[in-house]
């Protein structure tokens, strides 16, 4: 008999096999056992003429149970690949009734069925690559046989699921059905049995492979085309190798090849890191003092104050999610400029074919502009994005408090200012919160949601829910200078500058960190972001800067030369007109050498490993302080921030996960040595010392 995780009902000669394993019908041991029993029973039972496979609840199946990876296999439970072979081998026709999602192993189960029907809202795909894996249950062998090599490569290497309509267009599903898909599948299964037509097994299809056999160069071309996107990742290349094997080898050999590559990947550090990333991104929504049932307010209308670089992008997020937004500015000229930038951004998406003209106009029509605070009265959430100036922010919050309805949440996009002080300018500090978007705000997925001392659980719940609705990953953090991400970034940046004074050059430091997997090194990034903002902040801090702490003046000296980065054609590097490619500049190298001389420093040769350790270990060390202070809830929250806000390579799982891989003791010992050599900034964090002495890790906290 099947078990609780798989049920079977009989409808006039058709056995309907239902996977029932909430929340996502993951294909864990119980489901696999249940499926095997159900298939055996259906094969034996002469009253069963055909089979339907489906999922209970919201979806067909979210795929293999990711938590089982890396665990020893339970005894006497079939592997998914064997089970799908058994399903495909059925002498009685099998129809998949797909709804919700069919992902990963779930999609592979569908590929093993003889016919696939799907509801219009279905999303189907093979996202294994995003977990550092490949579709290891026949997906790389069956998918190209069904949809052809180019479409299979796209699906498997991007990992992006497709809609039912697209799936039908490429031959992945046979029919999109309105209404009850299980009913439709039962009818189809019965008709197939009645016809007694030959069964169409995906593994036996050859036509689509034959097309690719004539053009073997497509694989080399594909590898080349994905090189930028896949830089540093192992899994995408393994995926291509397997699809190539589907073309060059018989099915059984291709399957064995796929299995071997899957086993390599599943035990790799990269896949462990990417699985960590998957769960970490789901953990962020769990907040101990804001339980799941905390009421979240409905956000039907929003407002944004300040339509500059950030405000414009934030407004786009709202309308993209279907929420109308009112944009407030100080002058008509500022409104016109801000709206022109928004329109230009949408037009660029339209020209790339990723948005229709009509959709663009619909989105623009959801934006209302105003110079009158009174027009913000009905907004449920207001996001302030004016200049980074405390007096100005307090003035704006005072005005918002007076103008907005009492339940409205007032949020600030400040990147450095104290949310508590901003909240003090209102009569509703419980409804004030930070929503720190990253630039470009319409693209970057991270939101650091900053809770003040008096921010209420309801406000937090509303903003965390809103983050999801905007398609973002919201991570809750506490108030401190720079919050989580930028505070750690400062620690890393500072050491990068000191390395220059000691003997390194910008392009060397940048190359090491780029090779580590960051999208760019600290100096190229500073040129992109603009050097003037940080300069202004540092000037403001000059009087209060502790004299005993080392301070590098290189960046200030570069700004004094009028070099603010890409926007002025020169910064840490120089740029040819119209190009964003950083070119090392002898003038800056001379400046750096002269500053070393002023300090009486004898420049020395600095190796790649030293650069990496000197930049990354202090970053981790700062993360440890942030954790100890309770500014971040979990080490994995810090990882989510760095992967989604700063391009920290996902295959390293974020800085804290990476630190555990390197070894907390190794990092602690290095920090102690660096502290002895270079002084106070590098003092090991107490938490790092504690973990090292206990022999535990950030992941154990
Ligand atoms: N295994 C284990 N747990 C899973 C899971 C999986 N495949 N998919 C989701 N979950 C868990 C989540 O961790 C979460 O748990 P908590 O509530 O404890 O945090 C819960 O299920 C709900 O998940 P979501 O919050 O993500 O729910 P959603 O409704 O927003 O999305 C989903 C549902 C689209 C299925 C999404 O969860 C998802 O994309 N899951 C992963 C899909 C995937 O990558 N599948 C491939 C697996 S690898 C594979 O199949 C290998 C192979 O070839 C054999
Ligand atoms: P910006 O200078 O591009 O835009 C600020 C806008 O605010 C201008 O359009 C200005 O006209 C408007 N403004 C000024 N006073 C106003 C007032 N009283 N009422 C309404 N509008 C007013 O600045 P940017 O870069 O968009 O920054 C805004 C906020 O976002 C700042 O707090 C900044 O620290 C923060 N931030 C900036 C990031 C970035 O990369 N630029 C990243 C994350 C946060």
Q: What do these coordinates show?
A:
By secondary structure, the chain is of the alpha/beta class. The protein is 48% helix and 11% strand. It contains 29 helices and 17 strands. α1 runs parallel beside α2 and α3 packs across α4. The protein is globular, with a radius of gyration of 28 Å. Bound molecules: acetoacetyl-coenzyme A and 1,4-dihydronicotinamide adenine dinucleotide.
Descriptive key words:
alpha/beta; eight-stranded mixed beta sheet; six-stranded mixed beta sheet; 48% helix; 11% strand; binds acetoacetyl-coenzyme A; binds 1,4-dihydronicotinamide adenine dinucleotide
Structural class: alpha/beta
Mean pLDDT: 96
What count of helical segments does DSSP give? Answer: 29
Percent helix, as a range, is 40-55%
Strand order of the largest sheet: 12-11-10-13-14-15-16-17
| General shape | globular
Q: Note the main sheet.
A: 8 strands, mixed
Q: Which blocks of ≥5 consecutive residues have pLDDT under 50?
A: none
The Cα radius of gyration reads 28 Å
Secondary structure tally: strands: 17
Question: Bound small molecules, which ones?
Answer: acetoacetyl-coenzyme A, 1,4-dihydronicotinamide adenine dinucleotide
End-to-end Cα distance, whole Å, is 42 Å
Q: What percentage of amino acids are in beta strands?
A: 5-15%
């Amino acid at each position: 008999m099947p078990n609780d995780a798989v049920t079977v009902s009989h409808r006039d000669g058709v056995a309907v096999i239902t996977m029932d394993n909430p929340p996502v019908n993951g294909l864990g041991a119980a489901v696999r056992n249940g499926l095997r029993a159900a298939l055996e029973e259906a094969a034996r039972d002469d009253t069963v003429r055909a089979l339907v496979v489906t999922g209970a609840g919201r979806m067909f199946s979210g795929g293999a149970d990711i938590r089982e990876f890396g665990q020893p296999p339970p005894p006497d439970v079939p592997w998914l690949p064997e089970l799908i072979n058994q399903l495909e081998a059925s002498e009685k026709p099998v129809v998949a009734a797909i709804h919700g999602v069919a992902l990963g192993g779930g999609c592979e189960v569908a590929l093993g069925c003889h016919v696939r029907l799907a509801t219009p809202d279905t999303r189907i795909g093979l996202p294994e690559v995003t977990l550092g894996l490949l579709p290891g249950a026949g997906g790389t062998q069956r998918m190209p046989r069904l949809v052809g090599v180019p479409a299979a490569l796209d699906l498997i290497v991007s990992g992006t699921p497709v809609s039912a309509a697209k799936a039908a267009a490429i031959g992945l599903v046979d029919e999109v059905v309105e209404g009850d898909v299980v009913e439709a599948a039962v009818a189809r299964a019965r008709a197939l049995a009645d016809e007694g037509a030959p069964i169409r097994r995906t593994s036996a299809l050859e036509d689509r492979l034959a097309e690719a056999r004539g053009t073997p160069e497509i694989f080399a071309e594909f590898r080349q085309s994905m090189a930028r996107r896949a830089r540093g990742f192992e899994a995408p290349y393994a995926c291509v190798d397997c699809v190539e094997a589907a073309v060059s080898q018989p099915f059984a050999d291709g399957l064995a090849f796929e299995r071997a590559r899957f086993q390599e990947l599943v035990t790799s550090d990269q896949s462990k890191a990417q699985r960590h990333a998957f769960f970490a991104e789901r953990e962020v929504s769990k907040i101990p003092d804001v339980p799941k049932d905390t009421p979240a307010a409905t956000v039907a209308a929003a407002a944004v104050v300040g339509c500059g670089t950030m405000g414009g992008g934030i407004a786009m997020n709202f309308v993209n999610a279907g929420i109308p937004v009112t944009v407030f500015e100080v002058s008509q000229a500022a409104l016109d400029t801000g709206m022109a930038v928004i329109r230009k951004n949408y037009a660029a998406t339209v020209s790339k074919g990723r948005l229709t003209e009509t959709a663009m106009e619909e989105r623009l029509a959801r934006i209302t502009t105003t110079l009158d605070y009174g027009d913000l009265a009905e907004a449920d959430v207001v996001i302030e994005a004016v200049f980074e100036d405390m007096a100005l922010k307090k003035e704006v919050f005072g005005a918002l408090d007076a103008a907005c309805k009492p339940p409205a949440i007032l949020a600030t996009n400040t990147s450095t200012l104290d949310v508590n002080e901003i909240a003090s300018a209102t009569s509703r500090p419980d409804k004030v919160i930070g929503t720190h978007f990253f630039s470009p705000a319409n693209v970057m997925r991270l939101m650091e949601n900053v809770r003040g001392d008096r921010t209420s659980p309801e406000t937090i719940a509303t903003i965390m829910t809103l983050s999801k609705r905007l398609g973002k990953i919201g991570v809750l953090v506490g108030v401190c200078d720079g919050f989580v991400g930028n505070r750690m970034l400062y620690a890393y940046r500072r050491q990068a500058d000191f390395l220059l004074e000691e003997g390194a050059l910008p392009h060397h430091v940048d190359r090491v960190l780029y090779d580590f997997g960051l999208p760019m090194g600290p100096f190229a990034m500073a040129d992109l972001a603009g050097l003037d903002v940080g300069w202004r902040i540092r000037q403001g801090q000059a009087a209060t800067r502790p004299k005993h702490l080392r301070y590098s003046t290189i960046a200030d000296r570069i700004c004094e030369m009028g070099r603010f980065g890409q926007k002025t054609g020169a910064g840490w590097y120089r740029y040819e007109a119209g190009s964003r490619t950083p070119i090392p500049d002898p003038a800056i190298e001379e400046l750096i050498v002269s500053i070393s001389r002023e300090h009486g420093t004898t420049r020395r040769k600095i190796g790649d490993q030293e650069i990496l350790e000197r930049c990354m270990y202090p970053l981790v060390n700062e993360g440890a302080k942030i954790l100890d202070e309770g500014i971040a809830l979990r080490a994995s929250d810090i990882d989510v921030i760095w992967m989604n806000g700063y391009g920290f390579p996902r295959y390293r799982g974020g800085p804290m996960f990476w630190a555990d891989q390197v070894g907390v003791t190794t990092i602690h010992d290095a920090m102690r040595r660096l502290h002895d050599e270079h002084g106070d900034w590098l003092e090991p964090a107490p938490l790092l010392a504690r973990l090292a002495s206990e022999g535990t890790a950030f992941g154990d906290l």
